[in-house]
Amino acid sequence: MKKNFGIIGNPIKHSLSPVLHKYWFKKYNINADYSILEASDEDLPKIIKKIKEGSYSGLNVTLPFKQKIINYLDKIVNDAELTGSVNTLLLDNKKTVIGENTDVFGLQAAYLKEIENSSNKKALVIGAGGVSPSVILSIQKSGITNISITNRTNEKCIFLKKKFKFLNLIPWTNLKSEIKNFDIIVNATSLGLRDGEDFNFDFEGVKKNLTYIDIIYNPINTKTFKYLKERDVKVFNGLDMFIYQGQKAFYLWNKINPEIDQKLVELLLSKLK
Ligand code: ATR
User: Fold this and answer.
1) Which of the residues 175, 177, 215, 223 has an alpha carbon 20 to 30 A from that of 75?
2) Is 33 helix (H, G, I), strand (E, B) or coil?
3) What does pLDDT average to over the chain?
4) Entry pTM
5) Is residue 64 reached through a cis peptide bond, with omega within 30 degrees of 0 on the bond before it?
6) Across 112-126, average pLDDT
């Protein structure tokens, strides 16, 4: 029997998750489909019911539902519990709908495992929105203890500090002057996503051996990403994180750890601006 998977979010039309999972279904001869479900808040209980009834074997969850979905789940586990953020849903054999988080693994597998002497590094997370708890936990799990955060709206940083007590809060207005102190900077804002919108300062004076990670992968080169790349800063965009979070979700659903081969990466790149 054909299995159904999918992703819920809003807006969601441009998600690459169907491309990713369908590629692996084909590669591993799994009879399954993966669809896009543009949802509203009212749809969430109905969608969870469909999982319980077996209409969906698993779902991914993206903005703006990663936190809201928790109200409708039977339980959240592991990194989902630690972050309060869910991006993968699955059903266990007792018909319990479980919320997991594979974003934390995605970020670690993609970039953070490669950072040497992590314990001495100072990391800065820019942005305190939906993805930030996963970014913070993944940095912490990589052995980095000195983690700062800044956000245009300071209240959201204060809220995150309640969960992650070790965070240093940097006022948004100090970002320009303090940016030179960090070894790792993660852009967890939506700045760069829309044409022409990006950081309105130039990252001048950042450390020479800075690692810059942009959670955004579409467009593949944001303005800041390009600027830093041209200055020989080690830069990463969000594509690898996206692929690795999908790999772990695929494993949770199918108990197969799918390979990330060059053909897949090229296929995804061909779909991006
Ligand atoms: P949400 O906050 O609803 O979870 P998100 O898309 O996950 O939404 O997060 C957007 C992030 O990008 C936030 O950190 C947001 O800052 P605010 O909390 O101050 O809104 C940040 N962001 C979006 N547009 C921005 C802008 N023009 N300047 C600075 N930060 C911006």
Assistant:
1) 215
2) strand
3) 94
4) 0.95
5) yes
6) 89
